[in-house]
């Protein structure tokens, strides 16, 4: 079929890769360039925190998250970056004064899904065995099965793959004004397709009721003195921070979560909180270099759950909130399995 996709951020790309596997011909529209950074998918840390996200999410997130973890390797293989996937579990810790919070956090996860009984309590020795660099901590939990996708590599490699594919036409810097039954309206003209998908994230606000942005800020640090190998979280009463390791001593540090659609640069308050928290986790961050500070907004619905909406010759997928990498492959699979293209 001849298919149009409005919005080539994270969901649009996962969708495009699936549709190409099925032999369809695609026309993509995005208001940004193929290598631009306006998509939330470009700012994301790419954590696949299937258990840890359960604290404030429903068990449906866990089920879709598990399915996505099974699907990511194939998608990454398709674009030749299987090494952008890591699934070696994650660590969660806290400062001694916050140990009660940490216990409560783990109990909450264990009350939500039986699989969370696999989460392992670590003492100092156990921590050092997994992550020698976290030796200053004496209590933590190891969460098996969690992992990460290197989000920026996924976005870059998928751009290259889609741009080079003979069944793809990509209209870059093309703002879509409307998406309706089999039609995409852009550049003052309507283009007709056998089916269209609206995956514009926050850009679909005029068409999707209750869609809002949730601001998030992240740092990229180069930290040669730090050797943490797994995504690591620290619980704190006011904020949760995570450290996500990338190749060559780079770490993504995030992320704030603020009910605002403001995409302006990071605030002083957020930068102080994130950097002091990360320094308290590991003093080796003192001499790290700040290589990037990014802000973006997560496209979110009122219940913070994803939504697939089908109508004649059209599907909208939106509301992936802080779970885009965790959920996109499973949500796209579900949308396509619902038989919309048949
Ligand atoms: C700071 C931060 C950290 C995150 N960390 C994680 C994480 O660790 N794990 C995780 O699972 N998720 C994470 N997320 C969430 C994840 O990034 C989002 O859920 C996901 O990107 C949403 O995908 P999307 O395709 O709906 O939107 P986007 O990725 O934002 O893509 C939307 C695309 O539509 C285009 N567009 C918009 N309007 C128009 C228009 N009118 N015409 C044409 N094109 C248009 C945009 O240019 C963009 O390319 C994070 C998000 C943020 C902000």
TrEMBL record:
Q: Where is the FAD dependent oxidoreductase domain?
A: 5-331
Q: Which cofactor does it need?
A: FAD
- Where are its TM segments located? none
The EC number of this protein is 1.4.3.3
Key words, A-Z: FAD, Flavoprotein, Oxidoreductase
Pfam families given for it? Answer: DAO (PF01266)
Q: Which GO terms describe its molecular function?
A: D-amino-acid oxidase activity; FAD binding
Question: Would you kindly state one Gene Ontology biological process term found in this protein's UniProt entry?
Answer: D-amino acid metabolic process
Q: Which reaction does it catalyse?
A: a D-alpha-amino acid + O2 + H2O = a 2-oxocarboxylate + H2O2 + NH4(+)
Tree of life domain = Bacteria
Q: What class of enzyme is it?
A: oxidoreductase
Q: Which family does it belong to?
A: Belongs to the DAMOX/DASOX family.
Name of the protein in question: D-amino-acid oxidase
